[in-house]
């Protein structure tokens, strides 16, 4: 149980896929302009991460490893993730049309979201068992959601801020804010080591 907690806290705070490993930057910067869109994208990515891990781990262990076809890992994982994204997209379109419209083009881009692919591959390369892999993907999704929500909140505050010079408007202030948020998450490394170390 302790190892699962370490894995979860690690991927949520210290090894956050967006803020420390820079995976999933496209939706992080693109969808984080409004808080509701950021929450929707974070939940959708979390859901796809967990489903992708649940599907890809057995495929890797029982098919690709058993028949020495590890070279197909990335292609197979992308196909599985693409199928899951289509399932999520159809579900959102039918049951949550406003969220589907607010996510726009970024929902199909989850297919190529390197954070989702990164989590599935990391679970295999780190040697996690099935349960640890699922908890790692839940933690990574929560970390992605946390980063998206915090960044969206900061961006909404910055839109109302009047003291930003013209040369820093738009992309420059967005990147500066992302870097400061990333540095704040680096401070959690000592906390996690202190608690579980």
TrEMBL record:
How this chain sits in the membrane, per its record, is: Multi-pass membrane protein
Q: What top-level class of enzyme does the UniProt entry assign?
A: translocase
Got a GO cellular component term for this one? plasma membrane
Q: Per the record's keyword annotation, is Electron transport included, yes or no?
A: yes
**Residue stretches spanning the membrane:** 6-31, 38-59, 71-92, 104-124, 130-152, 173-196
The organism's place on the tree of life at top rank: Bacteria
Q: Which InterPro entries does this one have? A: Ion_transpt_RnfA/RsxA (IPR011293), NqrDE/RnfAE (IPR003667), NqrDE/RnfAE_oxidrdctase (IPR050133)
The protein's location, in the record's own words, is: Cell membrane; Endomembrane system
PANTHER family for the chain? INTEGRAL MEMBRANE PROTEIN OF SOXR-REDUCING COMPLEX, ION-TRANSLOCATING OXIDOREDUCTASE COMPLEX SUBUNIT A
Family as reported in the entry's similarity comment:
Belongs to the NqrDE/RnfAE family.
Its biological purpose is as follows: Part of a membrane-bound complex that couples electron transfer with translocation of ions across the membrane.
Q: What does the record note on quaternary structure?
A: The complex is composed of six subunits: RnfA, RnfB, RnfC, RnfD, RnfE and RnfG.
**Name of the protein in its database record:** Ion-translocating oxidoreductase complex subunit A
